[in-house]
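Weekly modeling sync, notes
Attendees: S.R. (lead), two postdocs, one rotation student

Agenda item 3: backlog of single-chain predictions. S.R. asked that every request posted to the team notebook include the full sequence so nobody has to chase files. The rotation student volunteered to paste the first one in as an example of the format we agreed on. Action items at the bottom.

Example entry:
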Amino acid sequence: MEKNINLRNCQTLNTYVMLTHLRMPAPIRLRELIRTIRTARTQAEEREMIQKECAAIRSSFREEDNTYRCRNVAKLLYMHMLGYPAHFGQLECLKLIASQKFTDKRIGYLGAMLLLDERQDVHLLMTNCIKNDLNHSTQFVQGLALCTLGCMGSSEMCRDLAGEVEKLLKTSNSYLRKKAALCAVHVIRKVPELMEMFLPATKNLLNEKNHGVLHTSVVLLTEMCERSPDMLAHFRKLVPQLVRILKNLIMSGYSPEHDVSGISDPFLQVRILRLLRILGRNDDDSSEAMNDILAQVATNTETSKNVGNAILYETVLTIMDIKSESGLRVLAINILGRFLLNNDKNIRYVALTSLLKTVQTDHNAVQRHRSTIVDCLKDLDVSIKRRAMELSFALVNGNNIRGMMKELLYFLDSCEPEFKADCASGIFLAAEKYAPSKRWHIDTIMRVLTTAGSYVRDDAVPNLIQLITNSVEMHAYTVQRLYKAILGDYSQQPLVQVAAWCIGEYGDLLVSGQCEEEEPIQVTEDEVLDILESVLISNMSTSVTRGYALTAIMKLSTRFTCTVNRIKKVVSIYGSSIDVELQQRAVEYNALFKKYDHMRSALLERMPVMEKVTTNGPTEIVQTNGETEPAPLETKPPPSGPQPTSQANDLLDLLGGNDITPVIPTAPTSKPSSAGGELLDLLGDINLTGAPAAAPAPASVPQISQPPFLLDGLSSQPLFNDIAAGIPSITAYSKNGLKIEFTFERSNTNPSVTVITIQASNSTELDMTDFVFQAAVPKTFQLQLLSPSSSIVPAFNTGTITQVIKVLNPQKQQLRMRIKLTYNHKGSAMQDLAEVNNFPPQSWQ
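Predicted structure, as returned to the notebook:
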């Protein structure tokens, strides 16, 4: 009875399933879905089609329909590539992977690569399926598993399956070896410590004749060399074998299987060249072994097709990166020069970028292609134009400055606005560095201001004013040129500002017509004032420009004789200006006329020659190896009463406590300023000294609440006649061939003073240049660095640098010091910090 009931139930269930399949039509094929979606006229219509199909696919997944699962996942992947969400198909991909049918596995693995990644835990469920398929009897199933693992395998999966990959890397099947090599690359990227596992398998990879295996093997070797210095040294012995493979590719005849535009397997050639570049870098023997083959590739490769250009470009990069011969480097640069004549914009851009990287090391070779590079400034492509501009500035030197500036000024006239700022800055720097004469320099800067005045840097105006001031013999010529430049055109505000300043300073030269460099013009005092008044009322003039113009008019009151009353009237008018800055200037100038007229001529006399220094706040500090000097700038007198200690001192902690003292500057010296021109400290660019005193003194002491320094009022020369003998010297620093020794002296007139003389010696084979010694001590001390005897430490201990440090230790505490050393050696900038705590007791007790 029960058996009859069960049989009847099974028949009913089968009938229900059959009826369900009859009621549900078969899903449309992928090809039909693509055709339907492409008929959509709007984005909304396409979304509606996609949503409808996704609903049908979801329903099919819920019904566990195994018949059409593969078709539905394929459609889902297409919708995923269109940008629609398809995450609900992830588990269906895993079901397809577990299927025994190859067509199901193929779609399942493809879906896993597209829809899954290591951030989702679902991918770990695939590990066992991939392991089984890696050991499958069919090579195509093994290939699917290798591709999937190499595409999205996580570090956990790679650790679990690395053994199977290494086993397949040793197989004789070329189809599997090339896929296993690429999969090994992914495993090494995810788990670098597994690299040694694949080392035995790489021994015979380069002996394979199959180009696919060779290609993937070179990729694997490249990855291992880039990630491990030990592997790089190990694989350098393969250079002759790689050279032989590359030579066979070049010399082999036509092979339809590997031929691309008449070149045998360019993809393999490019990969080998990249590997050779890594192996030959910083290695003389490897570089020597590949010089000949690189020359053959460079001379025998066809350049009429992009395929050949790609190989030549890789060859150039390899030549430039290894220790190649000078003739080979010239050949490489000539190849880049030929690239500049190519019609393809991408090739021209690549050539310009490569030349820009090599111009510093092979300047003369790049100079031969200067005319071609300058022609690229006329290119319509903005990227090529920018690279050509940067390279043109890199090629400027003292021999070609006139010709290059002519081309660059022409480019500045015609280029787009986004280029003008960079081009103007480059012209300023080049002109300042290589100007053949001051007149040429002034003319060039004025030409830039006339052409692109609105785009120049903020410091262009003061720099040009300084240049004009220092060129005493050019004053009449310059003021005449500037006067003519602004007649009726006030659009270039920086040019108008410089012109107003010069007219105010040298207006008498303009009116007298004393110009000898060119034909003088006849200008009256009223015409000059008309121009300046026009600047004041022009709508194009900024507040800063009006300030320049008003000050220029005021200065002319001491240079002109017939128009003083007119100048008084103009100045008085602007005493009620709505511009506060202009009003303040006018009020002060009116006061000069009314109350201090006897001082006016002295106050408004010509500016003296200015020295160029770097601005750092209200006072400019010129740093010379630990010494500072106030530049001749106008500063406010310090307020009366005690001054607070600089906040910077509270931030420093060099020796484990908040007790650091600043370096006390010595008297001004004539030594050149160091790079940066700022007061140096041992923790960056913090100014340790606070505000220096305004009045010049033999020793410029900062206004900080410290006890009077022992050297105030004394000579800054390190001369102490009363010396306490018997203080042993110490070695404060010894590293990389540089040795610093301290010797000590004590003054009987002031027992709190310790004079330390440093001696720097160099035991290496090359000189150490730009040597700078700096020091910091706790706040209970005061320290003064004097000028060093030189900035070059001679090689082979043939000489020393000496420098004197004076330390005030009123509390007789144990001396501690931190030192900072910077210098250039073997073409590299070196920097090091050290602590000195082993001072002998006699030096501080």
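Discussion: group reviewed the output briefly. The chain has 33 helices and 14 strands.
Action items: rotation student to repeat for the remaining queue; S.R. to check formatting next week.
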